[in-house]
Amino acid sequence: MAHNSTTDYCFLGKSGLKVSNVCLGSLTFQKIDEGLGANSSPTQLKTEEDVYKLLDRFVELGGNFIDTANIYGKGRAETMIGNWLSKKNRDDVVIASKVRFRMSDKPNDIGLSRRHIMQSVEESLKRLQTDYIDLYQAHMWDSATPIEETFRAFDDLVRCGKIRYIGVSNLNGWRLQKVVDTIKYAGMNPVVSLQQQYSLLCRYPEFEELEVCTNEGIGVIPWSPLKGGLLTGKYKRGEVPDPNTTRIGHVAKDEKRLIQLSAPAWSSYSDNDNYWKIIDKLSSISKKHGL
């Protein structure tokens, strides 16, 4: 992979792993009916050819960091990335995946138990067509499983070479600190990254989670940095987003039924003066810099 001179690379947390400063997410690598609530959209990448073009362009621009999860399309996103990866030099790409959510109706096919982690990593490795996953992340907190069980399983996977680094996602401040302290006490491999929703419309992580990350040397991977498209500047005051071409418009059709995750409710922002002030300021800054 030829590194683009305009691409910045940084170490992931306190690890020696260098990743591009932009990580390509793969939540949209699925059919509309496979989407989780608000994550479904008419703009999903529905064919493998579309996915390949996006991945090729990302790498061409110098990107080397790709994030996925077993739950995205119930394995479909990992499968498409794996098919693409099989035709590339594996060592050129940093692959991140996640485990936590229910993958079937079987009672043990959910959570962060040792059993589910061990089963899930094997299935992800098979779909991704690789011998190792660079960054394996706990997708969310699991109150049913002791922290020691979860992270000893992750530690064992690092030791046997199936994963290289451990990450977490969607943890609040006290839980993240508890994980860090438990791992230190037990002498296990550390958590190197936190994947958390973070943008100009979602700044709550600044109160606690990012403070923990700064104090403990944990890297931050923001998800939905454009808040489902709300921060792109393509939406205008007084206009209703098109339900056939935008995720925000698609969700707005049925806001009560869908969970508002990375595609937030348009009704929460259409008359929100603070939102429009942010957009106006971003627009003026963009124009000033020709971006």
UniProtKB/TrEMBL annotation:
Annotated ranges, domain NADP-dependent oxidoreductase: 35-290
Entry keywords, A to Z: Oxidoreductase
Keyword NADP among record annotations: no
Keyword presence, Signal: no
Top-level lineage group: Eukaryota
Pfam families per the UniProt record, alphabetical: Aldo_ket_red
Family membership noted in the UniProt record: Belongs to the aldo/keto reductase family. Aldo/keto reductase 2 subfamily.
The protein, known as: NADP-dependent oxidoreductase domain-containing protein
Organism name: Tegillarca granosa
